Amino acid sequence: METLKGALIGCGFFAQNHMHAWAAIDGAEIVALCDRDPDSLKNTAKAFDVDATYGDVAEMIAAERLDFVDIATTVTSHRPLVELAAAAGLNIICQKPFAENLDDARAMVKSAQQANRILMVHENFRWQSAVRAAISAIQKGEIGTPFFGRVSFRSAYDVYANQPYLATDDRFIIQDLGIHILDISRAIFGNATSISALINRINPKIKGEDVATMLLNHENGATSVVDCSYSTKRQPETFPETLLEIDGDRGSLRLEAGYKLIVHKDGTDQVFDVSPPLLPWVERPWHNIQESVQIIQQHFVECLRSGTNPETSGDDNLNTLALVEAAYLSAQENRTVKLDEL
Ligand code: NAD
Ligand code: 89V
């Protein structure tokens, strides 16, 4: 089988993880890099031994024979880059947040559909092995039908050091991190019909909100609370773990700090260590997220090979993005927002 050829667009902080993961994945290779910043481009090309480098995406697409592009730029560039790649007949994996707003996201999905190409969002938190273990226990019916969940991410880790835009953008925690946690809630309970959100800014040095508490009503009647904070000083510092408490009609499940999964059923607890493996290229505490990058990119390659729609496709991600938009609207207008308003 021929190796799929891809190009990375955006060689910044997080793209280094993409490159390590691509190097570990069979059946696909990154043959070209693009970044507007010459230093990032040069350093990434050197670190991963890629010869073909470009400062302009259109030039790269015209010059290279590619099967896919991996878009690892920040959100403002996602729509033009996705549309350019789709128009060139390329498959696309695009980082989250997928788009700045729902109209852009819908247009991006349409562009890939019209080109008959696969468009996947790099929505990787639901692919973390610990989260996946919890989701699969629930899907296997271990706790019966889930009716309540708390999906929680609370930390005071200094995320601004590596990603300075998180401190200066108007929107912060829901758009950057809450988007993952809302997506995990969707992976467990399915789509939501309404959301109520409260937001706060505790850290005076940043522009956006760093605390969000959201209440979701799901189509299947379940309720979930999705709570996120980057101003929670605690021991142990759990960055970047998502903690879960899920109640079902036959039992309950908890994913606790330290990747401890507890399934309670028939009156007893079963305890599992679901710590992510330490891949050769990862670094604590990011190893959890880094492993999920490799898993999601592997899923993308499998979808390209089989021609199937990815689990976290652009189309699917419209529902996660809608929750983000609805949460901001809810917080702004201090009311419950129905998803069908958007
Ligand atoms: P970054 O600013 O470090 O890197 C982005 C790079 O893209 C920069 O080098 C910039 O020069 C380049 N770029 C921007 N527009 C371009 C264009 N049109 N053409 C070519 N190059 C362009 O950003 P980052 O922190 O690496 O974040 C990138 C994305 O990854 C963001 O959307 C962020 O939310 C996401 N992210 C995801 C995770 C995750 O777990 N899924 C974690 C961290 C960051
Ligand atoms: O995963 C992310 O999207 C990152 C972080 C973990 C810092 O929130 O931006």
Structure report:
The chain has helices spanning 15-24, 38-48, 57-63, 78-87, 102-114, 129-139, 165-168, 173-189, 287-306, 314-333; strands at 4-9, 28-34, 52-54, 68-71, 91-95, 119-122, 146-154, 192-200, 211-218, 223-229, 243-248, 251-256, 260-265, 268-273, 337-338. It contains ten helices and 15 strands. The chain is globular, with a radius of gyration of 20 Å. α1 crosses α9 (287-306) and α4 (78-87) runs parallel beside α5. A hairpin with a 2-residue loop joins β11 and β12. It has 342 residues and is of the alpha/beta class. Bound molecules: nicotinamide-adenine-dinucleotide (NAD) and (2S)-2,3-dihydroxy-3-methylbutanoic acid (89V). Nicotinamide-adenine-dinucleotide (NAD) is lined by residues 9-15, 34-37, 40, 57, 72-75, 77, 81, 95-96, 122, 124, 163, 176, 289.
List keywords for this structure.
alpha/beta; Rossmann fold; Dihydrodipicolinate Reductase, domain 2; nine-stranded mixed beta sheet; 10 helices; binds (2S)-2,3-dihydroxy-3-methylbutanoic acid; NAD(P)-bd_dom_sf
